[in-house]
Amino acid sequence: MKNFSQLKKNLKKDFSGLKAIKVAILGDTATQFLTQTLRGLGYDNGFNLEIWEADFNQIERQVYDLSSELYEFTPEIVIVFQSSHKLLGKYNKIKPAQHVMFASTELEAIENIYSNLTNNLNAKVIYYNYTEIDDSIFGNYANKTESSFLFQLRKLNYELMVLASKSPNLYLCDLSSIQNQVGKANFFQTSVYINTEMVLSIDVLPKVATKTIDLINTLNGKFKKCVILDLDNTTWGGIIGDDGIENIQIGSLGIGKAFSEFQYWIKKLKNRGIIVAVCSKNTESVAKEPFEKHPDMVLKMDDISVFVANWENKADNIRQIQSILNIGFDSMVFLDDNPFERNIVRENIPEICVPQLPEDPADYLEYLYTLNLFETVSFSNEDAERTKQYQIEAQRATIQQKFTNEDDFLKSLNMLSLVEPFNKFNAPRVAQLSQRSNQFNLRTVRYTDADIERLVVSDDYFTFAFTLEDKFGDNGLICVVILQQENSETLFIDTWFMSCRVLKRGMENFVLNTISSFAKENGYTRLKGEYLPTAKNEMVKEHYPNLGFEKNNTHWELNIENHKRRKSFINSK
Q1: Is the pLDDT reported for residue 400 higher than 80?
Q2: What is the model's pTM?
Q3: What Gene3D superfamilies does the record point to (predicted)?
Q4: Which of 28, 58, 377, 523 gets the most CB atoms within 10 Å of its CB?
Q5: Contact assessment for residue 116 and residue 64, using Cβ atoms and an 8 Å cutoff
């Protein structure tokens, strides 16, 4: 991680060509150095953060005055930083009888700030939670005394989590966990605070900025979807081919405990929806044996989406995994204990994340915790099914190799699609897919649950959610189209994105047939599309011309009256 001075040097670099994001920072303490750190780290992440910073301790004035500089700036993201030290100052000044209601009163004020921001701005709100201060008035008994500051502070952090879980555009940045990692002495320096009103030390600023940029990355569709595991001395201790299944180190004794706890961490990631793959230099049958037969293995074959074990180059094997998963290399994390193998992969696939695992396996987890590799801004029940879906995709890839004719293969899949407008059941998955889809995404518009709710009740938009299932299994919701009524004759394709898991199945033809039929039945004569290029969606650059649309200035248009249904082997469910 770069330090503050290194990140500050980035401010002299050329930000043109980077994705511009307007960010407002509202703080009750000095935030100038935080602003510089965020902008410098934004550069390293491909962002030109255009940051407007409110004057010191002007949060309420900026939020409640609709003519304020905040609303003139129209940010896409608002960062609100109310510090624990100011919180303690408020607590100190109220009457003791009010202490027991302190957290509830503060939460109500925070909720009002959030409501005003989201009602008057089309913005996401990142709120920094509170680091702990123990004023030692009650000692340990503070944990049993509801009126104590420590009790109220912890209650407020808990209630903030509850509020965020119910507020689709509110995201918490966990400063408290950073202080736990680095220690209060490294997080906060009294002399700096007294003289400058800065509550964040210079040394901790890059960590706070990293935690914040993690959220901004994820809100913009940049996050990790897959972890690829080496096996020997990474997933278990020892070398399975040499030591044999009975002598590898896993379980509750000695260093085996470190590997078992590492496996539990991977298992939790899998249950959250992260794809788990294996890339090992081993004979496949030998490499699979612990997963199938060792009683202490936490990970089983059912947890692995793609299993590649052979004696080929690991970079080539990772490319094979990528071809099956159809996700970007920058969405992958490769974990391997061997520095040589890590360097081979880094040199050949520079986009992939390859952490520098510590030499001692006992340190793996604590190190990985600090990296926060798998930030997310959404979670749905469908995530738990992702492993099975990718296992099925691997089966499809194997079966497809047996067919010489692609049409015959597609016919053999017996594909069915359910097409529905957005509803309370599919809306969370629609929002999540909009955050995750980067490659097959014509305009790369991101939606939150609140955005979806607005579209559902609007008379100007028509929404379509497509599922896909075949003889191998159900892929769930995999495609979304949003049509906007431009005029009495034209429907504009505001949004068209699709999961890359279902590429090369003819889904785009089925979708076009569906929306063109809808347009014709409702009296429209033209579909109008737009391709907005990003660093990741070049694969759909020719999407509209390939479907028969004709160029009209910067847009693509399809005359529905002359449109002939395109060949598709997908049937409506």
Answers
A1: no
A2: 0.78
A3: HAD superfamily/HAD-like (3.40.50.1000), SGNH hydrolase (3.40.50.1110)
A4: 28
A5: yes
Q: Which long-range contacts (C-beta less than 8 Å, at least 24 apart) are formed by 409-415?
A: 410/505, 410/506, 410/569, 411/569, 412/471, 413/470, 413/471, 413/472, 413/505, 413/569, 414/470, 414/471, 415/468, 415/469, 415/470, 415/505, 415/569, 415/570, 415/571
Verify that 362 and 503 share a domain, yes or no.
no
- CATH number of the domain bearing residue 157: 3.40.50.1110
Q: Do 199 and 327 have their domain in common? A: no
Alpha carbon separation from 493 to 463, 504, 526 (Å, rounded): 10, 21, 11
CA distance 379 to 172: 15
Domain count along the chain: 3
Of the three residues 158, 193, 219, the one that is the final residue of a domain is: 219
Q: Are residues 135 and 198 in the same domain?
A: yes
Return the SS3 of 544.
helix
> For residue 469, what is the domain's CATH number?
3.40.630.30
SS3 263: helix
Nearest residue to 544 via CA among 511, 504, 517? 511
How many other C-beta atoms lie within 10 A of the C-beta of residue 161? 11
Enter the tokens of residue 497.
């994105």
Question: Using one digit for the tens of pLDDT, what is the confidence trace for 103-153?
Answer: 999 999 999 999 999 999 999 999 999 999 999 999 999 999 999 999 999
Instruction: Report if residue 31 sits inside a domain.
Output: yes
